[in-house]
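Predict the 3D structure for this chain.
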Amino acid sequence: MPRLDEYLDAHGPAVIARWLVRAQEDLHGESMPPIELVDHLPMFLREVAASLRARSASDGSATAAMHGENRLRLGFSLPAVVREYGLLRDAIVDSAREAGVPIERFEHEVLFDCTITAIADAVGQYARQRDADVQRQANEHYAFVAHELRDPLHVALFALQRLQRNPQATDTGTLDNLERSLSRMRDVIDQSLRVARVGAGVELRVEQATLPDLLFEVERAQSDAAEQSDVKLVAVAEGNDAVSIDRRLLSSALGNLVRNAIKFTHPGGTVALRGRVSGTHAVIECEDECGGIDPKEVERAFAPFVQLKPDNQRGFGLGLAIAKQAADAHGGSLRVQNLPGKGCMFVLEIPIAAPPEGVTLGQ
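Done. Predicted structure below.
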């Protein structure tokens, strides 16, 4: 008659098959591919067999730690992680008994110790990875908010400096830039406080706006930055079509695109902002003269904290990620076209009709 460790070595797949049936019923894993659901458990069975031969459980289980991290990625809850190890222990005992394999007292104890150790390691790694993910998301949120405040702050400072140079001037454009920038900073702060209170994403506040108004507003807001960089900024809108948008979010997205374009366009170059309605979508293009980017880097362009053209200027690589989120929230898209030898063209497309109810940004 084989011992329990010998039975596990020879019939591990049958034990896992029994466990899989129970797991799919009890853990609602029926829609999950068996290979993902089983994960590291066959290796864990081999660890159990080795512990049975040694007549004592090891101090830790590397496979259980990896299993816990995998369960977090698949969306398992902590109670489910605990239950599945209990189900595996039951599958081992029931399979052995059906096969007529006697289980001695010390084997029950070793099996219990292995199960408890595996649960502790899996849950520990699950919790550590979950906490790390929460911290990473919080850091990204804080960085996004700071980035959204930085642009209007710079515009406000430009406007203030211009007024300080000529206190008697009645430059309505400068005053308008100052007022818009301060209002935008207030909106970002108010929205961040609402998000902190409800723990949800940023809800779209949809209103009607025309493409010329939207584009020329962005042009005015970025005019000082373009002047300081010796870059010509041109905005052109075809027609006077109205679109249903969250004006604040879309202005922020376009502002990020234009500011990025100005930052990397050579002195004396031009940044063009163009808009038109094509069918059911508004198409807005931001073209620069940065010299182009490596085609291999295009896919990484919209990832947070990625800078495709690092330079000595201060920046966090968040502008394109924020613009992409705003486009997604409107049910639209943002892509980049490389113009070799000249620059890049970022193309933002959004439906001209109102986005679906309940769409949020930052979930």
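Residues 118 and 163 are 67 Å apart (CA to CA).
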